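Subject: for your reference before the review

Hello V.,

The reviewers asked for a structural picture of the protein, and I figured it would be easier to keep everything in one thread rather than splitting it across files. Below is the amino acid sequence we used in the manuscript, unchanged from the supplementary table.
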Amino acid sequence: MSLKDLADSLFDRIDHEAARPVDLTRHERGHVQRVLHGVVEVAGFHEALSDEVITFDGGASGLALDLVPGRAGVVLLRDPLGLRPGQGARRTGRVASVPVGEALLGRVVDPLGVPLDDGPALSSARLSPIEVPAPPIMDRAPVIRPLQTGIKAVDALVPIGRGQRELIVGDRQTGKTAVAIDTILNQVGSGVISVYCAIGQRGDATARVIARLRKAGAMDNCVVVVAGGEEPAGLQYIAPYAATSIAESFMRAGRDVLIVYDDLTRHARAYRELSLLLRRPPGREAYPGDIFYLHSRLLERATQLCDAAGGGSLTALPIIETQAQNLAAYIPTNLISITDGQVYLSPDLARRGQMPAVDVGRSVSRVGGKAQLAAFRAVAGPLKLAYAQFEELESFARFGAKLDEDTRAQLARGRAVREALKQDEGAPIPVAQQIALLLAVSEGLLDGVALAQFGPVANVVMTAVADLPAAQEIARGLPLEGDRRAVILVAIRAALDEVRDGHA
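And here is what came back from the structure prediction:
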């Protein structure tokens, strides 16, 4: 090759390379100043974004949570992996995201979408930011459809609608998680997708919940997001937001979704720990000043969308734990003011064996009553009044006062209502059978049943109406009146007559 040919080839190569687009990506770098327990202070960042992912030399990563000029407080999401002062840090320009979509159904993942089960990696799932704005007002619709929990005390007296935010609150060991899990189990076959978010829970407790869901066949339409108590506080902090993004992806596709946060008390404690390490000013109970906003922006994402926005719904059941029945503590009062009602579980009722331990007097649903089935409304009104009167009379009767016949009848009716509201854990009851049992109680058909025999007799009543066309009609929303009411009462009375004849 001549010198001229070599020069022409060299210039052609230069022209070819010059024509290629140049990818100049600007990466702002900083260095680690301090490493604390789960928090790193990084100097040198001037344009970092809130919740931006920061990577460190050595493989660790975190979120930029505290931003001041020239410095950023970064919350670690994984083990620090030998992170120490002086190491380099780099902005990525992207916010924390989680995989979403149908690929997550039946899976157990952490808040970053990393599988915790034996399934394959979620490489094909699309990503969604863990924090997005709540749906605007114009995209929302009224809550008019019920979400059945399968729990008599809730469906009848504290009804929940699709798109509602209903708080589950109570002391330790009162059955809060059991109520939420039974609600998930009751969605099997209903088309509702469930998302269970475990925050700061023990590993064995979460494993038992997952085993229950698998045994009942609920995992096929369920996603479990886990940030255990042994995980860094940063991972626990983002867990409910990641779980909500997963749930929202189904809601945006027009599906009905139920999400359970178990529990937000531990979430608040994780955020308090991070805030104190970031040297933010502590407020009441040492929580930072934005603790209310922490949960309000989370729960505002639960809603019923209008038809133009897809018509999907996201129902939220946040769980919080109280101490010594103190509902006036900081986090409980915050959550009570944010949500649309609460199911209060009383430790006194739990000690007396009244399970689920729903305190009807302290529980309220500000939205779900409009979504309640017409048949439920027909029996729940008189039932709630009779139960409230019974509780007052029972406390009065303990003093040994002489009671007239009407008062004794009210006490008998109240005891029947209390027994009817008892229910075994993990055994959700279909709507029609719930209504039939409560109808029998409100009509006084079970007033004379001995308390020891009430459970078996109640099962007989519910079995008697299970296959009636009238019962299926009221389960579809038709009112409990006319021939339907008469047919159901005839079946109940016939079943009770058989029970009495069998004991005669």
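For the response letter, the relevant points are probably these. The mean pLDDT is 90. The first helix runs from residue 3 to 19.

Happy to draft the paragraph if you're swamped.

O.
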